[in-house]
């Protein structure tokens, strides 16, 4: 996340890049039972933290997780740490995280004994597999009820690039390119939805008369940041 993000402010603090870090992350292809288990554990974890903070108003999330990190590393707890451990019921917090980790490992079909480096290697490999799948038309939607286009099926995505270059597509009348930015963004969003598949900024630009590819790409990135479009791989977008 730090590598793909940017830097901001006087302290040159790292910023989170949603398009690169979240949209491209290879989430597990869960069964409904696995989803329910992960959801249940996540809700238990959230409820535990909120409950302990409600009981102890001075207790912070940072303090709780600092003590949890010490427990995992085997570091000796001082008096303040022990007080936080008691107030936050950190051993229960640890158990909830361990249970959640095991549930996620199960969803991926991976052994829970993997080291961090091995997990990263598998995620990178899975990311490449998913990118190849999306090129052929298979999109594993995280939330299909929100992400999948109203019209068409996942198979249409693999054909979008080919369709955009056909004679029929080239003969389509160019759309009017609006003069102001809000209308341009709306027009790009509508054209992207009408494409019913993965397209590049250059391909989308050809749908408009006198549109600029750089501006279209900028608007596509804006739509991505607003959750109204997805960058499925570098330089290719879909609703």
Question: How would you characterize this protein structure?
Answer:
The chain is built from twelve helices and six strands. The protein folds into two domains: 6-134, no CATH class; 140-238, Arc Repressor Mutant, subunit A. Helix 10 (181-195) packs across helix 12 (213-225). It has a two-stranded antiparallel sheet with strand order 1-2. The chain is elongated and about 70 Å long. A hairpin with a 2-residue loop joins strand 5 and strand 6. It has helices at residues 18-21, 32-55, 61-73, 79-88, 90-108, 116-136, 144-147, 160-164, 167-171, 181-195, 201-205, 213-225; strands spanning 6-8, 13-15, 175-176, 208-209, 230-233, 236-238. Mean pLDDT is 83; it is low at 151-173. It has 239 residues and is mainly α.
Main attributes?
Arc Repressor Mutant, subunit A, mainly alpha, 239 residues, single chain, 2 domains
């Amino acid at each position: 996340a730090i590598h793909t993000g940017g830097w901001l402010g006087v302290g040159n603090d790292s910023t989170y890049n949603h398009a690169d870090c979240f949209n491209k992350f290879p989430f597990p292809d869960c069964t409904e039972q696995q989803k329910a288990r992960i959801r249940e554990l996540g809700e238990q974890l959230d409820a535990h933290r909120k409950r302990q903070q409600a009981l102890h108003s001075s207790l912070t999330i940072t303090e709780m997780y600092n003590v949890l990190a010490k427990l995992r590393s085997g570091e000796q707890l001082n008096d303040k740490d022990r007080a936080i451990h008691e107030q936050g019921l950190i051993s229960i917090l640890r158990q909830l995280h361990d249970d959640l980790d095991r549930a996620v490992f199960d969803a991926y079909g991976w052994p829970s004994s993997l080291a961090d480096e091995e997990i990263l290697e598998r995620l990178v490999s899975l990311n490449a597999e998913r990118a190849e799948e999306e090129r052929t038309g298979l999109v594993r939607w995280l939330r299909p009820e929100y992400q999948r286009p109203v019209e068409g099926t996942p198979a249409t995505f693999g054909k979008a690039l080919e369709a955009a270059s056909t004679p029929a597509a080239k003969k389509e009348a160019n759309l009017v390119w609006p003069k102001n930015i809000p209308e341009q963004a709306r027009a790009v969003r509508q054209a992207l939805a009408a494409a019913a598949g993965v397209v590049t900024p250059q391909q989308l630009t050809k749908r408009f008369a006198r549109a600029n590819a750089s501006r279209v790409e900028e608007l596509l990135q804006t739509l991505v940041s607003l959750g109204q479009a997805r960058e499925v791989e570098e330089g290719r977008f879909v609703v």
